Amino acid sequence: MTDQEWQVARVEDLDRFGPNEEGTLWRPVRRRFDVRAFGVNAWTGAQPGDRVIENHREPDGPEELYVVLTGRATFELGDETRDAPTGTLVSVRPGTVRGAVAAEPETTILAVGAKAGEVFEPSLWEEWYLADGYRRRGDLDRARSLMDDLVARAPDVWQAHYNRACFESVAGNTDEALDALRRAAELNPEEVKRFMATDSDLDPIRNDSRYAEVMA
Amino acid sequence: MNDEPKWTVATIDEIEAREAWIPVREHLGIHAFGINAYRPRENGEIINDHTEEGSGQEELYVVLDGHATFELDGEEVDAPAGTLVFARPASQRKASGDATILVIGGTPGEAHQAIDWGASWPFHRESLTAYGEHRYADALEAVKQGLASNPDHPGLNYNYACFATLAGETSDVTFEHLRRAVELFPPFRAQAREDDDFASVRDDERFEDALR
Question: Nearest C-alpha of chain B: how many angstroms from A86?
Fold first, then answer.
């Protein structure tokens, strides 16, 4: 958090979190500048074939604009693919499935988003990504502190508890993981069971007898 | 909203420029935040010297290509392609050089609202040129022509009131256009109260009536 009147950064100097399993690096922008009016983050695929933008849709309604800042990307938009060299702008309506893969080394895409007609609120996923990023870096204390903040801010949001369960499971803390998973399942049993079935983060606790109780 | 395309792809060069201003938001049909691009004017200026204290907007500038120099609260900042500059409302900022700069903006705590100029742009441009040269009657005439084909355009209604006031035409029709502008686009209410164009009618009771 900062109240500086202005700040400057170069794309290459933005922090790099990841890569995740698909090769995606998250480059926080909104948090870096503490932007409060719209969502903005950069994503990088370091090698051709690395995923830059996760294949997803935004069912809750944010409009999203993607700007190819460096390299070259292949966008997947509904059933079509589009070549997108540096400087390409891609605007996607809510509900449309979209994603992008790097076609050149160091392909970075800026993603800007907000909901039309609504006041912008920073999304909780950033906190989760940051905690997960610190966990992958081996900075468990910082990661846990962020997870604690997330659960404190959103005690009734199932994803906060679910993400904490994943975090503790991977960190080897079976009791804490199961407690968090139980709380998540109380809040939204259908979604939690759906995610639990295939989430490799939960593999370390899957054989615990208490895990089956949550699934039941 | 249902007839809008599910996605749109464009490069800056494919978007029809309005002089140095490239209307990205309008071209891509975005409503949730402000986004436009700018290229140098003849004097090399890309972003004019200003703050956003009036609008309360935060702005993120992205140097897409070329090389720009920013001046931020009096401090010079070198900004090659790939530079991000974030400015809070009070920051005094300008930029020049040979570059394309993308600007993303929004006001914290407020849903974004913006005006599409579309087919009204030629009339708006002509009126702004005349306004800049203090030819207020000509500016008003251009706005009237624009309103003939688009009577409910909020910006044209607002500018009608501004230019008519400056041209000394302060009949009820002028205040009716101001009232209509605020009805179509409520942010004009606050803007009108700060706008020097209305200095001569600020104490006219019809002015406050129009802003109710």
Answer: 9
